UniProtKB/TrEMBL annotation, chain A:
Record's protein name: sn-glycerol-3-phosphate transport system permease protein UgpE
Main location: membrane
Domain ABC transmembrane type-1: 74-267
Subunit text: The complex is composed of two ATP-binding proteins (UgpC), two transmembrane proteins (UgpA and UgpE) and a solute-binding protein (UgpB).
Function: Part of the ABC transporter complex UgpBAEC involved in sn-glycerol-3-phosphate (G3P) import. Probably responsible for the translocation of the substrate across the membrane.
Native source species: Pseudorhizobium tarimense
Topology term for the membrane: Multi-pass membrane protein
Keyword flag Cell wall biogenesis/degradation: no
Compartments, as annotated in UniProt: Cell inner membrane; Cell membrane
Signal peptide positions on this chain: none
Automatic annotation (TrEMBL), chain B:
UniProt xrefs under Pfam families: ABC_tran
Protein's name according to its UniProt entry: Sn-glycerol 3-phosphate transport system ATP-binding protein
Residue span(s) of domain ABC transporter: 4-235
A GO molecular-function descriptor: ATP binding
Top-level division of the source organism's lineage: Bacteria
Length: 280, 366
């Protein structure tokens, strides 16, 4: 028994180290000066430049045009993450509602068509999507950044499964109580889906936050840069013989990691509840 | 409050499955009707057609004289109580009760008064601000009934509302439903597969079998004059004994035993004979009776059920505790207590002169 416990702990400790060490290294390295990092490489010790570096990253206007600050990029990332998550939730709930509750012809077919798009990630349709956005002159707008990503097979699937598990009698009781389709959706289904919505919000927020390829294509104007895009930008800036701002890149990476971590930590109980149980 | 007419109503599901077959019921204002039958006989389907949750394939449903076939459930002026309560889990008890009234734009003061009245009647005042999750099964069922009561509908529809409760609670809730219905005087249709529940609640019973009505009548009428072997074996516990017999003149032969009937037999030849367990008694030595071989005894406390055979046919008799039992006994029965059914159709054969009293009166249109 004791022996078992020891090996369990070993495995867990190794696993945590495996996940944590790169983060710790990134954080520690970000507190060193750029020159230090250039000559000494990654570091596991405290560098002492913490305040300067982070302040600079968040407030100094950088980039070619000198217009974009770290906080602006954080804001853009939030707009993308939240818009992406909320949009996906609204769309997929409505789609699932139609599929589960309305006797449409081809409802099952519609569901499977949506479902098979799971097999087609954004990367497959990135060129046509770009073309469409460009034709609509939506490049370098939040709309262009968010809307093409909103259709969600995953979300639709989860909500469909959830709606299917809601007892029919609830719909029937609501019908007798005089609730039409819209009232039933807003008064009954949405509140019942709370935990599910929270779970999907977290997944989708993190997913949206971490988007890289699409913002890269869609935004050339630095005012629309997200954090993910910004990190790359810093390392690209080679002016003359200047050393790249490694410290800033690391600081930005650490900053970029924080919001998803915070959200997951705060909402984890909801998250688990939403995916495993339902309160019906 | 209203009368309710179900005229030649059928339900044909996709695939041609006829779940309800030409059902005719006329329900008086304030009457408590119980639809009873084995699982799958179409009780719920019929009730749901009245509620408007299921389309009516054929026939017509009228509530208070108005044909409601194409009218939305909310507009039919009915309230329904479901087996699994179907309370809105995210709303408090109060919100559950109010929801239907709010959707009808009932004035606030009126809503509050009705909710308070229903809560008092059902003794759920102290739970009004709880969520259904925090209530026991019995309390949830009270809330479900409250939700029906506040609507003050023309008719209550119950679909096996007590099936999810434990036996003891079921008995007390049964009494309560009956009391409430009496007090409110609201026309009610109640679906159950439990014949005891049906007997105790109903003003009139409707016994369904395979989507058809077997019999309509007051509980005792159905008990004492079952219209068919199906009703005979379904209503009453223990079930009525059904044995094969043969009638000749005024003599009935069951296996090796012979019984003499008082008057003339209603028919002659092969019949199915029905005998209630409680009508059988041990015969005195000079009396004629059924030669009964005892197999085993079930003690019920107040009486005992004696299981055995007459010839090769199983028979159950109900005996008082002080009756001496033997392995071989002769059982007597008052000939007037015998029921005769046609062997082929299973329909009741009425003794001459005793016309079937119940049938025409309930079928006639009010
Ligand atoms: N949606 C449906 N489609 C096809 N057949 C159904 C449907 N609902 C019920 N049935 C059938 O109709 C018959 C009656 O069902 P139901 O009214 O629920 O019975 P009960 O309530 O008496 O147990 C059953 O044989 C059942 O299989
Ligand atoms: Mg049923």
């Amino acid at each position: 028994m004791q022996k078992n416990k020891l090996s369990d702990h070993l495995v867990l400790i190794l696993g945590s180290l495996f996940l944590m060490v790169p983060v710790v290294v990134a954080f520690m390295t970000s507190t060193h000066a750029a020159a230090d990092i250039h000559s000494n490489g990654l570091s596991l010790t405290w560098g002492g430049n913490f305040a300067e570096t982070y302040e600079k990253v968040l407030t100094r206007e950088g980039g070619f045009t000198g217009q974009v600050t770290g906080s602006r990029m954080v804001m853009n990332s939030f707009i993308l993450g939240i818009g992406f998550a909320l949009g996906k939730i609204v769309l997929s709930m409505l789609a699932a509602y139609a599929i589960v509750y309305f006797r449409m012809r081809f409802a099952t077919l519609a569901f499977w068509v949506i479902f098979t798009t799971l097999l087609l990630p954004l990367e497959v349709r990135i060129m046509p999507s770009y073309q469409v956005m460009s034709d609509l002159s939506l490049l370098n707008t939040y709309t262009g950044l968010i809307v093409p990503l909103l259709a969600s097979a995953t979300g639709t699937f989860y909500f469909r499964q959830f709606f299917k598990s809601v007892p029919d009698e609830l719909l029937e009781a609501a019908r007798i109580d005089g609730a039409g389709p819209i009232k039933f959706f807003i008064d009954v289904l949405v509140p019942l889906s709370r935990t599910m919505i929270a779970a999907i919000f977290i997944i989708m927020f993190v997913y949206g936050w971490n988007q890289y390829l699409w913002p890269m294509l869609m935004t050339t104007d630095e005012r629309f840069f997200t954090l993910m895009r910004g990190i790359k930008q810093i390392l690209q800036v080679w002016i003359g013989s200047q050393i790249p701002d490694y410290n800033e890149a690391f600081a930005l990476a650490v900053l970029a990691m924080l919001p998803p971590v915070v959200i997951v930590v705060i909402f984890q109980s909801w998250f688990i509840k939403g995916l495993t149980e339902s309160d019906k | 409050m209203a009368s309710l007419d179900i005229n030649q109503v059928s339900k044909i599901y996709a695939g041609g499955n006829k779940a309800v077959n030409s059902v005719d019921i006329t329900i008086q204002d304030g009457e408590f009707i119980v639809l009873v039958g084995p699982s799958g006989c179409g009780k719920s389907t019929l009730l749901r057609m009245v509620a408007g949750l299921e389309e009516i394939s054929e026939g017509e449903v009228k509530i208070g004289g108005r044909t409601v076939n194409t009218i939305e459930p909310a507009e039919r002026d009915i309230a329904m109580v479901f087996q699994n309560y179907a309370l809105y889990p995210h709303m408090t008890v109060r919100q559950n009760l109010e929801y239907g009234l709010k959707n009808r734009n009932t004035p606030r003061a009126d809503i509050d008064a009705r909710v308070a009245e229903a809560a008092r009647m059902l003794e759920i005042d102290q739970y009004l601000d709880r969520k259904p999750r925090a209530l026991s099964g019995g309390q949830r069922q009270r809330v479900a009934m409250g939700r029906a009561i506040v609507r003050q509908p023309a008719a209550f529809l119950f679909d096996e509302p007590l099936s999810n409760l434990d036996a003891k609670l079921r008995v007390s809730m049964r009494g309560e439903i009956k009391r409430l219905q009496r007090r409110l005087g609201t026309t009610s249709i109640y679906v159950t597969h439990d014949q005891l529940e049906a007997m105790t609640l109903a003003d009139r019973l409707v016994v369904l079998n395979g989507g058809r009505i077997e019999q309509i009548g007051a509980p005792l009428e159905v008990y004492h004059q079952p219209a068919s072997t199906f009703v005979a074996s379904f209503i009453g516990s223990p079930a009525m004994n059904l044995v094969q017999g043969e009638l000749h003149g005024n003599r009935l032969a069951v296996g090796p035993s012979l019984l003499t009937l008082g008057g003339h037999a209603p028919t002659s030849g092969e019949v199915t004979v029905g005998l209630r367990a409680e009508d059988l008694r041990v015969a005195s030595s000079d009396e004629e009776g059924l030669q009964f071989r005892l197999d085993y005894v079930e003690e019920l406390g107040s009486q005992r059920l004696v299981h055995g055979h007459v010839g090769d046919q199983a028979l159950t008799a109900s005996m008082a505790l002080d009756v001496a039992l033997a392995d071989e006994m002769k059982l007597a029965i008052d000939p007037r207590r015998l029921h005769f059914f046609a062997r082929d159709t299973g329909k009741r054969i009425h003794a001459p002169g005793t016309a079937p009293a119940s049938q025409p009166s309930v079928m006639e249109v009010a």
